[in-house]
Design a protein that fits this description.
This protein is of the alpha/beta class. It has eleven helices and nine strands. The chain has a five-stranded parallel β-sheet. The chain has a two-stranded antiparallel ribbon with strand order 3-4. Strands 6-7 form a two-stranded antiparallel sheet. The radius of gyration is 21 Å and the shape is elongated. The two termini are about 35 Å apart. The structure holds adenosine-5'-diphosphate (ADP). The site of adenosine-5'-diphosphate (ADP) has 17 residues, from helix 2, helix 7 and helix 9. Belongs to the CbbQ/NirQ/NorQ/GpvN family.
Length: about 260
Protein backbone atom coordinates (compact mmCIF):
# COMPACT_ATOMS: atom_id res chain seq x y z
CA UNK A 1 0.00 0.00 0.00
CA UNK A 2 3.04 2.32 0.23
CA UNK A 3 3.09 3.30 -3.43
CA UNK A 4 -0.48 4.62 -3.39
CA UNK A 5 -0.87 8.25 -4.44
CA UNK A 6 -0.66 10.32 -1.25
CA UNK A 7 -4.11 11.15 0.11
CA UNK A 8 -5.13 12.19 3.62
CA UNK A 9 -8.77 11.27 4.29
CA UNK A 10 -10.89 13.99 5.81
CA UNK A 11 -13.83 11.83 6.82
CA UNK A 12 -15.09 8.40 5.79
CA UNK A 13 -14.89 9.17 2.08
CA UNK A 14 -12.62 6.19 1.29
CA UNK A 15 -15.14 3.76 2.78
CA UNK A 16 -17.98 5.43 0.88
CA UNK A 17 -16.07 5.24 -2.40
CA UNK A 18 -15.20 1.57 -1.85
CA UNK A 19 -18.80 0.69 -1.03
CA UNK A 20 -20.10 2.61 -4.05
CA UNK A 21 -17.61 0.73 -6.24
CA UNK A 22 -18.62 -2.64 -4.80
CA UNK A 23 -22.31 -1.85 -5.13
CA UNK A 24 -21.88 -0.53 -8.70
CA UNK A 25 -23.17 2.95 -7.90
CA UNK A 26 -22.05 6.11 -9.72
CA UNK A 27 -20.52 8.83 -7.58
CA UNK A 28 -20.73 12.62 -7.77
CA UNK A 29 -18.08 14.72 -6.02
CA UNK A 30 -19.02 18.31 -5.26
CA UNK A 31 -16.67 20.98 -4.10
CA UNK A 32 -14.43 23.92 -4.89
CA UNK A 33 -11.42 23.62 -7.13
CA UNK A 34 -8.14 22.45 -5.62
CA UNK A 35 -9.58 20.74 -2.55
CA UNK A 36 -8.48 17.18 -3.33
CA UNK A 37 -11.19 15.62 -5.50
CA UNK A 38 -8.87 14.50 -8.28
CA UNK A 39 -6.24 13.25 -5.84
CA UNK A 40 -8.94 11.30 -3.99
CA UNK A 41 -10.10 9.54 -7.15
CA UNK A 42 -6.50 8.79 -8.19
CA UNK A 43 -5.83 7.34 -4.76
CA UNK A 44 -8.98 5.23 -4.73
CA UNK A 45 -8.41 3.87 -8.25
CA UNK A 46 -4.95 2.70 -7.16
CA UNK A 47 -6.34 1.27 -3.94
CA UNK A 48 -9.03 -0.65 -5.81
CA UNK A 49 -6.47 -1.62 -8.44
CA UNK A 50 -8.53 -0.31 -11.34
CA UNK A 51 -7.23 1.68 -14.31
CA UNK A 52 -8.32 5.31 -14.18
CA UNK A 53 -9.57 7.28 -17.19
CA UNK A 54 -9.74 10.98 -16.38
CA UNK A 55 -11.46 13.47 -18.65
CA UNK A 56 -11.37 17.21 -17.96
CA UNK A 57 -14.63 18.50 -19.36
CA UNK A 58 -14.86 21.74 -21.35
CA UNK A 59 -17.50 23.39 -23.54
CA UNK A 60 -16.31 21.73 -26.71
CA UNK A 61 -16.33 18.24 -25.27
CA UNK A 62 -18.82 16.09 -27.14
CA UNK A 63 -20.17 12.60 -26.62
CA UNK A 64 -17.83 11.31 -29.38
CA UNK A 65 -14.81 12.51 -27.37
CA UNK A 66 -15.93 10.10 -24.67
CA UNK A 67 -17.24 7.19 -26.67
CA UNK A 68 -14.89 7.18 -29.66
CA UNK A 69 -14.80 7.88 -33.37
CA UNK A 70 -13.72 6.53 -36.71
CA UNK A 71 -10.26 7.65 -37.74
CA UNK A 72 -8.49 7.37 -41.07
CA UNK A 73 -5.30 5.40 -40.64
CA UNK A 74 -3.14 4.47 -43.61
CA UNK A 75 -6.10 4.89 -45.97
CA UNK A 76 -8.33 2.73 -43.80
CA UNK A 77 -11.14 3.72 -41.50
CA UNK A 78 -10.64 2.33 -38.02
CA UNK A 79 -12.71 2.75 -34.90
CA UNK A 80 -10.87 4.23 -31.89
CA UNK A 81 -12.47 3.84 -28.47
CA UNK A 82 -12.77 7.01 -26.42
CA UNK A 83 -11.82 7.00 -22.71
CA UNK A 84 -15.33 6.22 -21.46
CA UNK A 85 -15.63 3.24 -23.80
CA UNK A 86 -12.21 1.98 -22.75
CA UNK A 87 -13.16 2.27 -19.09
CA UNK A 88 -16.31 0.25 -19.76
CA UNK A 89 -14.52 -2.41 -21.81
CA UNK A 90 -11.59 -2.74 -19.40
CA UNK A 91 -13.55 -2.41 -16.17
CA UNK A 92 -11.96 0.82 -15.01
CA UNK A 93 -12.91 4.00 -13.24
CA UNK A 94 -13.97 6.84 -15.51
CA UNK A 95 -13.64 10.27 -13.89
CA UNK A 96 -15.26 13.27 -15.56
CA UNK A 97 -13.90 16.39 -13.95
CA UNK A 98 -16.17 19.49 -14.08
CA UNK A 99 -18.91 17.57 -15.84
CA UNK A 100 -21.21 20.62 -16.14
CA UNK A 101 -18.77 22.16 -18.59
CA UNK A 102 -19.43 19.44 -21.16
CA UNK A 103 -22.05 19.65 -23.90
CA UNK A 104 -25.53 18.35 -23.27
CA UNK A 105 -25.08 15.25 -25.42
CA UNK A 106 -22.48 14.02 -22.93
CA UNK A 107 -25.08 13.66 -20.19
CA UNK A 108 -27.27 11.71 -22.59
CA UNK A 109 -24.47 9.16 -23.05
CA UNK A 110 -23.94 8.92 -19.31
CA UNK A 111 -27.57 8.29 -18.35
CA UNK A 112 -27.89 4.60 -19.32
CA UNK A 113 -24.59 3.95 -17.51
CA UNK A 114 -25.80 5.48 -14.29
CA UNK A 115 -28.87 3.35 -13.67
CA UNK A 116 -29.13 -0.38 -13.19
CA UNK A 117 -28.90 -1.03 -16.93
CA UNK A 118 -25.22 0.04 -16.81
CA UNK A 119 -25.14 0.17 -20.59
CA UNK A 120 -23.15 2.14 -23.10
CA UNK A 121 -24.83 2.24 -26.50
CA UNK A 122 -22.37 2.94 -29.32
CA UNK A 123 -24.52 3.97 -32.26
CA UNK A 124 -21.58 4.37 -34.61
CA UNK A 125 -20.37 0.80 -34.23
CA UNK A 126 -23.80 -0.64 -33.65
CA UNK A 127 -22.77 -2.09 -30.29
CA UNK A 128 -24.25 -1.90 -26.84
CA UNK A 129 -21.69 -2.50 -24.15
CA UNK A 130 -22.67 -3.90 -20.79
CA UNK A 131 -20.47 -2.37 -18.10
CA UNK A 132 -18.69 -5.03 -16.03
CA UNK A 133 -18.95 -5.04 -12.23
CA UNK A 134 -15.60 -3.32 -11.86
CA UNK A 135 -16.55 -0.31 -13.97
CA UNK A 136 -17.35 2.85 -12.03
CA UNK A 137 -18.40 6.31 -13.14
CA UNK A 138 -17.27 9.28 -11.05
CA UNK A 139 -18.06 12.90 -11.91
CA UNK A 140 -17.21 16.14 -10.17
CA UNK A 141 -18.52 19.66 -10.26
CA UNK A 142 -18.10 22.90 -8.43
CA UNK A 143 -21.46 24.17 -7.16
CA UNK A 144 -19.76 27.46 -6.24
CA UNK A 145 -19.67 28.64 -9.83
CA UNK A 146 -23.44 29.22 -9.66
CA UNK A 147 -23.77 29.44 -13.40
CA UNK A 148 -27.46 28.85 -13.98
CA UNK A 149 -26.87 27.87 -17.60
CA UNK A 150 -24.34 25.32 -16.53
CA UNK A 151 -25.90 24.01 -13.32
CA UNK A 152 -26.16 20.25 -13.18
CA UNK A 153 -29.74 19.29 -13.98
CA UNK A 154 -31.56 17.70 -11.02
CA UNK A 155 -32.51 14.77 -13.24
CA UNK A 156 -28.83 14.09 -13.83
CA UNK A 157 -27.75 14.85 -10.27
CA UNK A 158 -30.25 12.37 -8.88
CA UNK A 159 -28.61 9.54 -10.76
CA UNK A 160 -25.56 9.65 -8.50
CA UNK A 161 -24.75 9.23 -4.88
CA UNK A 162 -22.94 12.38 -3.86
CA UNK A 163 -20.13 13.44 -1.61
CA UNK A 164 -19.29 17.02 -0.67
CA UNK A 165 -15.69 18.14 -0.50
CA UNK A 166 -14.38 21.27 1.12
CA UNK A 167 -10.98 22.54 2.16
CA UNK A 168 -9.54 20.13 4.73
CA UNK A 169 -9.51 21.08 8.43
CA UNK A 170 -6.29 22.88 9.51
CA UNK A 171 -4.45 19.84 10.97
CA UNK A 172 -5.18 17.81 7.84
CA UNK A 173 -4.22 20.65 5.51
CA UNK A 174 -0.96 21.07 7.45
CA UNK A 175 -0.13 17.40 6.94
CA UNK A 176 -0.94 17.66 3.21
CA UNK A 177 1.13 20.79 2.62
CA UNK A 178 4.10 19.51 4.62
CA UNK A 179 4.05 16.19 2.78
CA UNK A 180 3.56 17.63 -0.70
CA UNK A 181 6.12 20.42 -0.44
CA UNK A 182 8.70 19.18 2.04
CA UNK A 183 8.54 22.57 3.80
CA UNK A 184 9.22 22.48 7.57
CA UNK A 185 6.03 21.99 9.58
CA UNK A 186 6.23 25.25 11.51
CA UNK A 187 6.41 27.20 8.27
CA UNK A 188 3.47 25.19 6.93
CA UNK A 189 1.53 26.10 10.08
CA UNK A 190 1.95 29.78 9.23
CA UNK A 191 0.55 29.12 5.76
CA UNK A 192 -2.44 27.22 7.12
CA UNK A 193 -3.18 30.05 9.57
CA UNK A 194 -2.97 32.49 6.71
CA UNK A 195 -5.40 30.37 4.68
CA UNK A 196 -7.88 30.41 7.57
CA UNK A 197 -7.77 34.20 7.56
CA UNK A 198 -8.03 34.47 3.79
CA UNK A 199 -11.00 32.13 3.76
CA UNK A 200 -12.71 34.31 6.34
CA UNK A 201 -12.55 37.29 3.99
CA UNK A 202 -15.96 37.89 2.54
CA UNK A 203 -16.59 36.43 -0.86
CA UNK A 204 -17.36 39.91 -2.16
CA UNK A 205 -13.61 40.39 -2.33
CA UNK A 206 -12.60 37.08 -3.81
CA UNK A 207 -14.34 35.11 -6.51
CA UNK A 208 -12.73 31.90 -5.30
CA UNK A 209 -11.18 31.05 -2.00
CA UNK A 210 -7.58 30.03 -1.57
CA UNK A 211 -7.32 26.33 -2.38
CA UNK A 212 -5.15 23.63 -0.86
CA UNK A 213 -3.49 23.44 -4.26
CA UNK A 214 -2.34 27.08 -4.08
CA UNK A 215 -1.04 26.54 -0.55
CA UNK A 216 0.96 23.56 -1.78
CA UNK A 217 2.36 25.71 -4.61
CA UNK A 218 3.32 28.47 -2.17
CA UNK A 219 4.98 25.99 0.21
CA UNK A 220 6.83 24.38 -2.71
CA UNK A 221 8.29 27.75 -3.75
CA UNK A 222 9.26 28.47 -0.15
CA UNK A 223 10.83 25.03 0.30
CA UNK A 224 12.87 25.71 -2.84
CA UNK A 225 14.33 28.75 -1.13
CA UNK A 226 12.19 31.58 -2.47
CA UNK A 227 11.51 34.51 -0.18
CA UNK A 228 8.09 33.87 1.52
CA UNK A 229 6.62 37.18 0.37
CA UNK A 230 7.67 36.57 -3.20
CA UNK A 231 6.30 33.03 -3.02
CA UNK A 232 2.99 34.28 -1.61
CA UNK A 233 2.75 36.97 -4.27
CA UNK A 234 3.19 34.42 -7.05
CA UNK A 235 1.22 31.52 -5.58
CA UNK A 236 -1.54 33.31 -3.68
CA UNK A 237 -2.04 36.99 -4.52
CA UNK A 238 -1.76 36.82 -8.31
CA UNK A 239 -3.83 33.66 -8.86
CA UNK A 240 -6.57 34.84 -6.48
CA UNK A 241 -7.32 38.27 -7.91
CA UNK A 242 -6.69 40.67 -10.77
CA UNK A 243 -7.96 43.71 -8.86
CA UNK A 244 -5.14 45.92 -7.55
CA UNK A 245 -7.04 46.91 -4.38
CA UNK A 246 -7.92 43.32 -3.55
CA UNK A 247 -4.34 42.26 -4.24
CA UNK A 248 -3.12 44.99 -1.92
CA UNK A 249 -5.45 43.79 0.84
CA UNK A 250 -4.29 40.21 0.41
CA UNK A 251 -0.68 41.22 0.44
CA UNK A 252 -1.06 43.16 3.68
CA UNK A 253 -2.60 40.14 5.36
CA UNK A 254 0.27 38.02 4.07
CA UNK A 255 2.90 40.49 5.23
CA UNK A 256 1.40 40.41 8.71
CA UNK A 257 1.83 36.62 8.73
CA UNK A 258 5.43 36.30 7.53
P1 LIG B 1 -9.51 19.22 -7.26
O1 LIG B 1 -9.58 18.00 -8.10
O2 LIG B 1 -10.51 19.25 -6.14
O3 LIG B 1 -9.51 20.50 -8.06
P2 LIG B 1 -6.86 18.22 -6.56
O4 LIG B 1 -7.24 16.85 -6.18
O5 LIG B 1 -6.14 18.42 -7.85
O6 LIG B 1 -8.11 19.23 -6.50
O7 LIG B 1 -6.00 18.83 -5.34
C1 LIG B 1 -5.04 19.82 -5.52
C2 LIG B 1 -3.80 19.49 -4.73
O8 LIG B 1 -4.07 19.62 -3.34
C3 LIG B 1 -3.33 18.06 -4.92
O9 LIG B 1 -2.43 17.98 -6.00
C4 LIG B 1 -2.66 17.75 -3.60
O10 LIG B 1 -1.34 18.28 -3.61
C5 LIG B 1 -3.44 18.58 -2.60
N1 LIG B 1 -4.48 17.90 -1.81
C6 LIG B 1 -5.70 18.41 -1.55
N2 LIG B 1 -6.38 17.61 -0.71
C7 LIG B 1 -5.57 16.56 -0.43
C8 LIG B 1 -5.69 15.41 0.43
N3 LIG B 1 -6.79 15.18 1.16
N4 LIG B 1 -4.64 14.57 0.49
C9 LIG B 1 -3.51 14.80 -0.22
N5 LIG B 1 -3.33 15.88 -1.02
C10 LIG B 1 -4.35 16.75 -1.13
Amino acid sequence: MTDLPFYVPVDHECELFTTAFQQRLPLLLKGPTGCGKTRFVTHMAARLQRPLFTISCHDDLTAADLTGRYLIKGGETVWADGPLTRAVREGGICYLDEVVEARKDVTVVLHPLTDDRRMLPLERTNETLQAPDNFMLVVSYNPGYQNILKALKPSTRQRFIALSFDFPPPETELEIIANESGLARERCTALVNLATQLRRLKETDLEENVSTRLLVYCATLMAAGLDPLQAAQAALVEPLSDEPEVQQGLFELIRATF
